[in-house]
Design a protein that fits this description.
The complex is a heterodimer. By secondary structure, chain A is α/β, with parallel strands linked by helices. In chain A, 37% of the residues lie in helices and 21% in strands. In chain A, the strands form three sheets. A seven-stranded mixed sheet of chain A has the order 3-2-4-5-7-6-12, with helices on both faces. A five-stranded mixed sheet of chain A has the order 9-11-10-13-14, with helices on both faces. A two-stranded antiparallel ribbon of chain A has the order 1-8. Chain B has one domain: 3-Layer(aba) Sandwich (Rossmann fold). In chain B, helix 2 runs parallel beside helix 7 and helix 5 runs parallel beside helix 6.
């Protein structure tokens, strides 16, 4: 099986979309002449031309809205918002329009729109460029939220996203683009709403998504050294959410920690924790642990920036302390 | 202001149709207001009373494959586009037979089959959608046009400026229809816009041809919009038409209109677009008074049927709460 960077898996996913479906086009800031802020669309403009690889003005609201509008009449737009921080400027179009049109029109209209964006911190980009808002979008009915952690899933879930007829926030973590992973030559898809057991285990369940999956895996390896067996679950999607896989794991391990990069207050880990307690209270040997970034804006200086992003050591300590392991 | 098309050039049946459509919108909304007072229509009800000449002068110039999208004061646009008055009234009453299944209400009428792409209730939010529909049209290499209605309030939103720029930059087939009724809810346009009450100049920095017309003169609207559509259909980019208007009633049923002088309201009501058209037609000998009476009777019947249909229709079934949140999974 060939190994591939997540960035290249995304490039492949986008080339497939343009090659296979004439209704698909890409639109966003600096995706054409510049080649994409994260180089995912390098060479696309030359190959596909400026009608299908559209550099936009820095006008997030109108180019996201233009994606919605074109989807309303049967196009399959793939809109790139350079980072999830900038999606806030387009939130009216995403939440008030894209997410509502199917419902408000009683199914007369659909919005098969993929909004690709880059999430997460850790790049010393400070408070306005280091945020994660997947959890916010996951709270909006009508949106799907896809958060791949591996090149395999990035390609497989993008393929599935293209077949979905709903507006999708497809959030790629900035620090994962250079992660390498196995991607088969033969065609496959990864269905939306099916979590992945990244590593099986028996003593504690670590639930994570996006950039935190690697942190959880690293923590699991460290815990293994102390003979603590962790099961790592990669949620893959926040909406639709595969709670069943989580609950099944919790029934086996009886202990669970949810690891998430964004702020603890309002974090998606709170929803997961609550859902677990409702569904499996009697299976728990202790409270559901939430490991989130603290409620502070991201600082620039590396030493203090690192203090706000959950790390493997942080997870290990927390698991050992809270569960007395 | 553009010159008024001579009414003499109108075919009699066209004149009658214009009159009938304007009156239908007027009577439909008067009935909706009664239903609101009776408690059958709830939520926000924004009437278009006084502005009918814009929708009726503009929308019938479009082809079936063109698109209409607008704001929450949408009854007039929907009816002028041919949305069934029964389905529209049922929607206002929150019934399952409504044109949005009872899920949208007055502000969110939809009829995809008629290419009526919605009333949209976030001020300015429909403008980016119109850009997208126009972009889709262009990418599909069709020659449809998109008519987008918005009010003077929307002009101060960032989405307006983003949309104007992109429409012009990408030469998109959009007819921007500004309905300037001089008030953004209760705020006088002179108190909200640095450039004052005359807005069409705002299109100039975006290199969009723009014109201002009397939106109470249905013939002026008809002529200008017809020319505008033809120009847009050539593929050279958008046009911008500012129709000066006045809403006779409050912003919504919840609005006592304290911010407007009674004198101002009365003066504008004296220019009622339906009365004006009726008088012009009679003066020109275009239509007989009896034709108009007959048309009015037909309108009353249509509105009565719409009301009865709405009253008698069932509410959405409880399980409808959970339908169409997501699109049905299907091959695409």
């Amino acid at each position: 099986m060939a190994e591939m960077l997540l960035r290249d898996a995304m490039s492949k996913a986008l080339r497939e979309a343009l090659d296979e479906d004439e209704r698909c086009f890409l639109m966003g800031e600096d995706i054409g002449a510049y080649g994409g802020a994260y180089a995912v669309t390098r060479g696309f403009l030359e190959k596909y031309g400026e009608e299908r690889v559209r550099d936009t003005p820095i006008s997030e609201s109108v180019f996201v809205g233009a994606g919605v509008g074109s989807a309303m009449i049967g196009m399959r737009p793939i809109v790139e918002v350079m980072t999830i921080n900038f999606t806030l400027v387009a939130m009216d179009q995403i939440i008030n329009h894209a997410a509502k049109l199917s419902y408000m029109s009683n199914g007369q209209l659909t919005v098969p729109l993929i909004i690709r964006t880059v999430t997460g911190g850790g790049g010393q980009l400070a408070a306005t460029h280091s945020q994660s808002f997947e959890n916010w979008y996951a709270s909006v009915p009508g949106l799907r939220v896809v958060v791949p952690a591996t090149p395999y899933d990035a390609l497989g879930m993008f393929r599935a996203s293209r077949k979905d007829n709903n507006p999708i926030i497809f959030a790629e973590h900035a620090l994962l683009y250079r992660v390498r992973g196995e991607v088969p030559e033969e065609y496959y898809e990864v269905p939306l709403g099916k979590a992945r057991i990244a590593k099986p285990g028996t003593d504690v369940t670590l639930v994570a998504y996006s950039g935190m999956v690697r942190v959880a895996e690293e923590a699991a390896a460290k815990l293994e050294e102390d003979n603590i067996s962790s099961e790592v679950i990669d949620l893959r999607c926040l909406s639709p959410l595969d709670l069943d896989t989580v609950i099944e794991s919790v029934k086996k391990t009886n202990r669970v920690a949810v690891v998430e990069e964004t702020w603890k207050t309002g974090g998606f880990s709170g929803t997961i924790a609550s859902d677990i307690q409702e569904a499996a209270f009697d299976d728990l040997d202790g409270p559901v642990i939430r490991i989130n970034g603290p409620d502070v804006p991201a600082p620039y200086a590396r030493n203090i920036e690192q203090l706000m992003i959950p790390s493997a050591d942080w997870v290990v300590e927390s698991v050992k302390y809270n569960f007395g392991l | 202001m553009a010159t008024t098309l001579n009414i003499e050039t109108l075919a009699k049946e066209d004149a009658l149709e214009i009159f009938t459509q304007m009156l239908l919108i007027r009577r439909f909304e008067e009935e909706a207001e009664r239903l609101y007072r009776r408690g059958l229509v709830r939520g926000f009800l924004h009437t278009y009373i006084g502005e009918e000449a814009i929708a009726v002068g503009a929308i019938p110039n479009l082809r079936e494959d063109d698109y209409v999208i607008g704001h929450y004061r949408d009854h007039g646009h929907a009816l002028a586009r041919g949305v069934d008055p029964k389905a529209a009234m049922a929607e206002l009453c929150g019934k399952a037979t409504g044109c949005s299944g009872g899920k949208g209400g007055s502000m969110h009428l939809f009829d995809a089959e008629k290419h009526f792409m919605g009333g949209h209730a976030i001020v300015g939010g429909q403008l980016p959608l119109a850009i997208g529909i126009a972009l889709g049209v262009k990418l599909k290499e069709l020659d449809s046009v998109v008519m987008c209605f918005f009010g003077d309030g929307a002009v101060n939103e960032g989405e307006f400026h983003e949309a104007m720029n992109m429409a012009s930059l990408w030469k998109l087939p959009v007819v921007f229809m500004l309905e300037n009724n001089l008030y953004g809810m209760g705020t006088d346009v002179n108190r909200s816009r640095a450039g004052g009450a005359s807005i069409y100049g705002a299109a100039e920095p975006y290199m969009i041809p723009a014109v201002q017309i009397d939106g109470m003169d249905v013939m002026a609207v008809r002529e200008t919009v017809s020319e505008g559509i033809a120009k847009v259909r050539e593929g050279t980019g958008p046009v911008f038409i500012e129709a000066m208007a006045y809403r006779f009633h409050g912003h919504s049923m919840a609005d006592p209109s304290n911010y407007r002088d009674n004198e101002e309201v009365q003066e504008n009501r004296s220019r009622d677009p339906i009365d004006k058209f009726r008088e012009d037609c009679l003066e020109a000998g275009k239509i007989e008074a009896t034709d108009l009476e007959l048309a009015a009777e037909k309108v009353d019947l249509v509105v009565q049927e719409a009301r009865e249909f709405a009253e008698q229709s069932p509410e959405p079934a409880p399980e409808e709460l959970y339908t169409h949140i997501y699109a049905d999974p299907e091959e695409n």
